[in-house]
Every structure is written in C-alpha cells, then in structure tokens.
Design goal:
The chain has 128 residues and is mainly alpha-helical. The chain contains five helices and two strands. It has helices spanning 5-8, 28-34, 61-73, 78-109, 115-122; strands at residues 40-45, 48-53. It has a two-stranded antiparallel ribbon with strand order 1-2. Strand 1 (40-45) and strand 2 form a beta hairpin. Helix 3 (61-73) packs across helix 4 (78-109). GO terms for molecular function: DNA binding. Residues 13-56 form the SpoVT-AbrB domain. Keywords: DNA-binding.
C-alpha cells in the first residue's frame, strides 16, 4: 500500500479518484462503517489526511454523564443545568489539553529506557 501500515495501523484500503475540484466519493461500505451522516471533519498527521464523522457532542460521553450527575446532585435544573454543563465541559476540554501538553513535555525530557520505573510501578503484576 502507498500509505505505511505502521503509521495508521492495519486496515482495509479502498482507492478513489480525486476530481479536478478535489472531490472524492467515499465508498459506501466505509461511509456506513464510519457512521457518517451529513458532515465530516479533516485532520492531518504527517502526510496522512484523516477524515471522521463530525460528532454532535464534544467530549467523552462517560465524562458527560459524570458531569451531569454531579450537577443534578448540586440541584441544577433546566436552563441553569444546561449552562453549567456547557461550562464544565469547556473546563474539561481545557484540562485535557493541559494534561496532554504536560505529558508531552515530561516524555520529551525523559532520559533512559523507563524499565526501572515500569518495574517499580508494575513489578508485582508483570510476568517473568
């Protein structure tokens, strides 16, 4: 395949032509498997274009459930609940971005193999 499997993982590939207007028809099987409705979003990683269905809800549904449960316990209802929920989801997004940035910084400054640290943390559950 023209795209390196190690870059995007093993998968079935379909070939499509690109029109002079840069348009591509998505093969029906892929369209259905991806759950595409009427919109997609694009990203780029290296020289790979990634396309995915637009998600109506931002964030992880599990976290959304936790946020809603907490807000309901705090007594929020109606419009107040909706407003507070949107605020908390925004805060979660910022916190996740910060966590990713901190993890990236830590990983880039790490020296060594990490074997000693892994053994210290997981040694009791690692097999021989």
């Amino acid at each position: 395949m023209a795209i390196a499997d190690e870059a995007v993982g093993r998968m079935d590939w379909k070939r499509a032509r690109v029109s002079p207007k840069r348009q591509v028809t998505i093969p029906q099987k892929l369209f259905e498997q991806a759950g595409i409705k009427d919109e997609v979003e694009f990203g780029i990683k290296g020289n790979h274009i990634i396309m995915r269905p637009v998600r109506e809800h931002v964030g992880n549904d599990y976290f959304a459930d936790l946020i809603l449960a907490d807000l309901i316990k705090e007594g929020f209802t109606g419009e107040q609940l909706l407003e507070k929920f949107r605020q908390k989801q925004g805060e979660l997004h910022v916190a996740i971005k910060k966590l990713i940035a901190e993890s990236d910084k830590t990983a880039r400054s790490f020296k060594g193999t990490g074997d000693d640290e892994t053994e210290d943390i997981f040694g009791d559950v690692m097999g021989d």
